[in-house]
Write a structure and sequence with these properties.
This protein is α+β, with helices and mostly antiparallel strands. Helix content is 27%, strand content 34%. It is built from nine helices and 20 strands.
Length: 437
C-alpha cells in the first residue's frame, strides 16, 4: 500500500524538463524569414515602379489644368440663314510660306493653265499639303479577343486625327468616336513619327466625334516643339461655292490619304436633337468610310468630314460638318464636360412666316425625340420655343447655345407658343436635362 501511494505521489510531482534549444535550426529559420522579407520587398518595389506611372497617369488626367476655349466665329449665323448676306473668312494663318496670307490662292488666281503651269500648280499643292501635315496625326486603336478555338486575335484600326489644342497637361486630338471606344489601347503617331499612348476624353454619339488626350509629359521636348494646332476658320462664308479645298486625313477610307476639289454645295442642314449643323458638299470622290478634315487655301479648318448625311444621289462625294457650328461641341469634348440633352429637333421660324402668317418668332419644333425630357414634359410637334430659362430663343442657334451651357440634371424652364383655335397661346414646361451618352 505505501508503495502504491509512493508511486502516485511520484507521478504527481513529476518534473517537466524543457527541450534543449536547437540553435542551428533557429538560425536557419531566421535566415529564411529574412530572405523571404527581402524577396517580398523587392517584388513590392518592382510592382510599384511598374504601376506608378499608370496610376499617376490615371490620377493626373482627371480634369484639365486650364479650360480650353475656341472663340466664336464673329460671322456666326444660323444654318438656316447661311445663304443670307455676305461675309469674308475670318483671319489667315501666319504659319508656313504657302499658308501665309493665302499665297497659294493668289498663285492659283494669277496662273494661266498650261502643261508647265499645271506641274507647277501640283507641286505647289504638294508643298501645301506637306505643311498641313503638321496638324494631322494617325490614331491606332488596339483591341483583342479570343475565338472559338481559344486563339487570341488582335485588331488594329487606324484613323486620322486633328491636333486641336492643349490644356497645359494634355494634347487634345479630334478623331472618329467609333474607332476609339471600347478598345484596350490607343496609340497616336505624331507628325515627327514619334508615338504616345492616348486615352478617350469625351465622345459625342450623334456626330461620331471624340477627343482623345495624350499627356504632354509623355512627349519629348523635340516633339513638343514640332506640335502645331490647327487654326479653325469659318464655314459661314456665303461665297464658299466653288472655293478650292483640300480633304486631309482619311477621305479615301485609309489613313494619310488626301483629296483636292472644290465646294459644290453648302445649303443643306444636318439636323440632330437640340442642334443643327451646316453641311458642306464637295466634288471630291472619297470612301463610304471617309473621315478627316476640310482645309481652305489659307490652311484653316472649315469642316469635319462626315458620312452621316450622305445622300444617295451624291455617291461617295465628300461631305463635312461646318466648323463654325461645331465650336461649342468641340469645347465640351475638349474639356471633358457632359453634354445636356432635351430632345428637340427644330428650325428657326422664317421672317416671312412671322410677317405674313402671324407665326411667332422662335424655334419651330419639327420633332420631339422619344422618351426625351422634352417629350416627358409635354412638348409637341408644332410648338414654337420662345425662351429657355428666361433667355429668348429667336433662332435655333440661340437655342443650341443655351443647351450647350446646360449641365445634365439641371432644371430647365421652357416657354413655348402653341396654336389653339387659330391663335397662339403661351405655355410653360418644366423638365430636367439628361446626359447624352
Amino acid at each position: 500500500m505505501p508503495d502504491k501511494e509512493q508511486k502516485q505521489n511520484s507521478f504527481v510531482f513529476e518534473e517537466l524538463k524543457q527541450r534543449p534549444l536547437n540553435r542551428a535550426k533557429l538560425l536557419r529559420r531566421t535566415l529564411i524569414t529574412a530572405f523571404m522579407a527581402v524577396v517580398f520587398g523587392l517584388i513590392a518595389c518592382v510592382t510599384f515602379l511598374l504601376l506608378e506611372p499608370i496610376i499617376s497617369r490615371k490620377l493626373n488626367t482627371e480634369g484639365p489644368s486650364t479650360i480650353v476655349i475656341f472663340p466664336e466665329d464673329p460671322e456666326e449665323m444660323a444654318p438656316e440663314d447661311m445663304l443670307a448676306g455676305s461675309s469674308q473668312e475670318s483671319g489667315s494663318s501666319e504659319e508656313g510660306s504657302l499658308l501665309e496670307n493665302g499665297k497659294l490662292e493668289e498663285l492659283m488666281s494669277e496662273m494661266q493653265m498650261s502643261r508647265e503651269n499645271t506641274a507647277q500648280l501640283y507641286a505647289a499643292m504638294q508643298t501645301f499639303v506637306g505643311e498641313l501635315q503638321k496638324y494631322m496625326v494617325t490614331v491606332t486603336a488596339l483591341s483583342s479577343n479570343v475565338d472559338w478555338f481559344n486563339n487570341v486575335q488582335e485588331s488594329r484600326n487606324q484613323r486620322s486625327g486633328l491636333i486641336l489644342e492643349d490644356n497645359g497637361r494634355e494634347l487634345l486630338i479630334l478623331t472618329s468616336a467609333q474607332y476609339v471606344q471600347n478598345v484596350e489601347q490607343i496609340i497616336v503617331t505624331l507628325p515627327d513619327a514619334s508615338q504616345a499612348e492616348a486615352r478617350l476624353k469625351k465622345q459625342d454619339e450623334y456626330t461620331n466625334l471624340a477627343v482623345i488626350a495624350v499627356l504632354l509629359s509623355d512627349l519629348t521636348d523635340k516633339t513638343k516643339e514640332q506640335i502645331a494646332y490647327a487654326p479653325l476658320g469659318s464655314s459661314n462664308n456665303s461665297n464658299m461655292l466653288g472655293m478650292p479645298v483640300v480633304a486631309m486625313g482619311s477621305p479615301l477610307g485609309v489613313s494619310n490619304s488626301i483629296g483636292y476639289g472644290m465646294i459644290a454645295a453648302n445649303s443643306s442642314t444636318f439636323s440632330l436633337p437640340d442642334r443643327n449643323y451646316k453641311m458642306i458638299q464637295t466634288d471630291i470622290n472619297g470612301s463610304e468610310n471617309a473621315a478627316g478634315v476640310l482645309f481652305n487655301l489659307n490652311g484653316q479648318v472649315i469642316g469635319i468630314i462626315s458620312t452621316q448625311e450622305q445622300g444617295k444621289d451624291s455617291g461617295n462625294l465628300i461631305s463635312a460638318i461646318g466648323i463654325t457650328e461645331l465650336r461649342k461641341l468641340l469645347e465640351k469634348l475638349s474639356n471633358g464636360y457632359e453634354i445636356a440633352f432635351l430632345g428637340v429637333n427644330g428650325m428657326t421660324v422664317p421672317q416671312e412666316a412671322s410677317r405674313y402668317l402671324g407665326v411667332p418668332l422662335g424655334c419651330f419644333v419639327r420633332k420631339v425625340e422619344m422618351d426625351s425630357p422634352a417629350m416627358r414634359a409635354g412638348l409637341q410637334q408644332g410648338d414654337i420655343i420662345v425662351s429657355v430659362n428666361g433667355k429668348a430663343t429667336y433662332t435655333f442657334t440661340e437655342y443650341t447655345n443655351i443647351c450647350m451651357q446646360l449641365e445634365p440634371g439641371s432644371r430647365v424652364e421652357m416657354k413655348v407658343m402653341r396654336k389653339s383655335q387659330d391663335e397662339y397661346k403661351e405655355m410653360t414646361f418644366q423638365m430636367e436635362a439628361q446626359e447624352v451618352k
